[in-house]
């Protein structure tokens, strides 16, 4: 079988880039069915180097919330490009987007910008340590590679490690991993490190996110009692579960929060936001957090346009409704063909999991066949604003074919 152009790119990438990509989760694992590279996207579809089309639910691993080449956002980028990308002083967009975030996010009295979610979370951890005068951090979920410091914590999404390669033990010992919805473990850590916990940083378990209804309020009460800060990692949930993220959805206001993937339809930007008193910790005379590219205007222009579309066109409602059509429909197909895969969580960002007692490889087998049939999926998959009913129904038809092929393969064994 002749090697595809995409596979040739994979070989070239592996020669010059560790992992074959600068983003671990983007490196293809299911070749030859999975595309080695994607060269173009439009609305809710992408094309690989061989010209094969996929209905896409990876969405750049989350940032594409409106769709590829979304006109309003692309026009805003082009208009700003004509006036310059970055300057030696603040640009009005920096103020305007911060004002929009403060109007939309419950905890946000002030906002500041960086380029990636993990970087912004690192900023909130530094703020928490300065503000509280404490050193220890409790982390729940995956908070990005730069903050994956706790032994036993998530080193990548869904991947835990007893050790943290490349991190000195002295630093790792200040970070403590706790599991989602395990309040008892969080309380144990507070008791073990009495008066030493600066903050609890939490990213939702997307499959079990409904448990946040009780877990988030319990953490809010506990951190207030202990004099620690509560930091919400809203990199995935922000502008997706609700405009203001899980804090709006569950009506629990943290001290600090980070938003990123949903902010600018793919342009690189992150915001760390919070109460004015707490954010003062990184003001003049406080801890220094500074980046030349924090006020880069193309991403800010994209964010302003994106946030305007969210507000004016009820994007979040679309993500819930079309997510239900897509993932509820796929769950029905799994049941029809007896495929032991479950889709759990909220419709805008559900997670795939393998049913109890099933072979764990079944999920990878399904993803491989999904690629073969022209649908791009990930462990946490998303609809975007450009997924219309016809796109969803076409994707479900393609995935029905994938499940039928799986059934045929099992029956022939």
Automatic annotation (TrEMBL):
Gene3D superfamilies: Aspartate Aminotransferase, domain 1 (3.90.1150.10), Type I PLP-dependent aspartate aminotransferase-like (Major domain) (3.40.640.10). The keyword Isomerase applies. GO terms for molecular function: glutamate-1-semialdehyde 2,1-aminomutase activity. It is an enzyme of class 5 (isomerase). The keyword Isomerase applies. SUPFAM superfamilies: PLP-dependent transferases (SSF53383). Its cofactor is pyridoxal 5'-phosphate. Keywords: Isomerase, Pyridoxal phosphate. It holds the Pfam family Aminotran_3. It comes from the Bacteria. Its EC number is 5.4.3.8. Belongs to the class-III pyridoxal-phosphate-dependent aminotransferase family. This is Glutamate-1-semialdehyde 2,1-aminomutase. It comes from Paenibacillus eucommiae.
